[in-house]
Amino acid sequence: MLTKQQIRYCLDVMARMFPDAHCELVHRNPFELLIAVVLSAQCTDALVNKVTKRLFEKYRTPHDYLAVPLAELEQDIRSIGLYRNKAKHIQKLCAMLIEQYNGEVPRDRDELMKLPGVGRKTANVVVSVAFGVPAIAVDTHVERVSKRLGFCRWSDSVLEVEQTLMRKIPKEEWSITHHRMIFFGRYHCKAQAPQCPVCPLLELCREGKKRMKKREP
């Protein structure tokens, strides 16, 4: 695995490559962000934004989502994968927000994880983006980049990846690092077509060097 110094170098390179990295889910408040992140599971941010552009005009509060039949909400998010389960989760979490949190999104990760459909990654995104709490949300991009570069082991679980990154990255950089690693994975170190030949981190990347070696005649 890479040393802390090597990881520091990688993060500095990512910072130069993507200085404006940010959450690409369009939202106006913590509640909309929570709904958007729940919808984004196994789905692209671009598709979620397309759906929420209409959704957030129709539904503005937790009460709004509970005022319609489940079937209607399902139709409103039908183009998103797993829409039936997500619709159920949204209505259940809205009910819980009203009953236990006075209709407000909790600022604590553990409290957020009590909500239906909200796992650790979703909770980390919400506390970080909505409330400015340092957190590293390990999504598919962060996990892939971490393992390809050698920040952690291929056998590590998502939680182990998060814990490794938290140990090796200064706390004040957790949130911005999360966004930069997502951008790096989404636009450069892609799942199917990583840009190894032009990657400034190739010399440190164990997977990139393997890929390049296979391309040699």
Automatic annotation (TrEMBL):
Give the co-factor note: Binds 1 [4Fe-4S] cluster.
Keywords of the record, alphabetical order, are: 4Fe-4S, DNA damage, DNA repair, DNA-binding, Endonuclease, Glycosidase, Hydrolase, Iron, Iron-sulfur, Lyase, Metal-binding, Nuclease
Q: Which CDD domains match?
A: ENDO3c
Q: Which GO terms describe its molecular function?
A: 4 iron, 4 sulfur cluster binding; class I DNA-(apurinic or apyrimidinic site) endonuclease activity; DNA binding; DNA N-glycosylase activity; metal ion binding
- What is this enzyme's EC? 4.2.99.18
Q: What class of enzyme is it?
A: lyase
One Gene Ontology biological process? base-excision repair, AP site formation
Q: Which InterPro entries match?
A: DNA_glycosylase (IPR011257), Endonuclease-III-like_CS2 (IPR004036), HhH-GPD_domain (IPR003265), HhH_base_excis_C (IPR023170), HhH_motif (IPR000445), Nth (IPR005759)
Query: Which part of the chain is the HhH-GPD domain?
Result: 39-187
Catalytic activity from the UniProt record: 2'-deoxyribonucleotide-(2'-deoxyribose 5'-phosphate)-2'-deoxyribonucleotide-DNA = a 3'-end 2'-deoxyribonucleotide-(2,3-dehydro-2,3-deoxyribose 5'-phosphate)-DNA + a 5'-end 5'-phospho-2'-deoxyribonucleoside-DNA + H(+)
Q: Which residues does the record give as [4Fe-4S] cluster binding sites?
A: 189, 196, 199, 205
Write down the required cofactor(s). Answer: [4Fe-4S] cluster
Q: What does this protein do?
A: DNA repair enzyme that has both DNA N-glycosylase activity and AP-lyase activity. The DNA N-glycosylase activity releases various damaged pyrimidines from DNA by cleaving the N-glycosidic bond, leaving an AP (apurinic/apyrimidinic) site. The AP-lyase activity cleaves the phosphodiester bond 3' to the AP site by a beta-elimination, leaving a 3'-terminal unsaturated sugar and a product with a terminal 5'-phosphate.
Family note: Belongs to the Nth/MutY family.
This chain's protein is named Endonuclease III
